[in-house]
Amino acid sequence: xxxxxxxxxxxxxxxxxxxxxxxxxxxxxxxxxxxxxxxxxxxxxxxxxxxxxxxxxxxxxxxxxxxxxxxxxxxxxxxxxxxxxxxxxxxxxxxxxxxxxxxxxxxxxxxxxxxxxxxxxxxxxxxxxxxxxxxxxxxxxxxxxxxxxxxxxxxxxxxxxxxxxxxxxxxxxxxxxxxxxxxxxxxxxxxxxxxxxxxxxxxxxxxxxxxxxxxxxxxxxxx
Length: 223
What we know:
This protein has three helices and eleven strands; from the N terminus they run αββαβββββββββα. It is α+β, with helices and mostly antiparallel strands.
């Protein structure tokens, strides 16, 4: 690595490779275990960094998913990653953990950040430019709670340490993903069997996959 004390001049062309115009960012709404769940619909934008992690476990992935991590706006490896999440009210990822620090800063709207699961769950609601910083080893999730603007997407910035950060969904989160993935298959099988000519058509059994149960209000932490 060059000695940082050796001041160097950069051309405009070189520096413009490190400029990301928000209006030109390419987001992704897939590439994560929970991407298809109705309560988790959001678009992730990899702005700085996010080299894909090396992991074989299906629960372990890039924090922005395989799709977004393959197209960061500024592709560098300098010890941290930055991106955005855009989502409508009630939407956000399932519980997960990271191998490095993760910091959230709402840019618009109101966002709820939860940590722990079950009886131990806590949360804090953040307004624009508030900051929360999660350490490694703590399960967390976030969700847009700007319910008075029901059809409007809002923006959350996240900053994650490292060059190849990993996100791992909790066992409960993976169970929710697996349940959702198998429900449509059962419905398809039922419809196919009902349409066979040797049998009288009957309505397909089972309904559409349900989203996660509404969360009961928990004690707010901090405010």
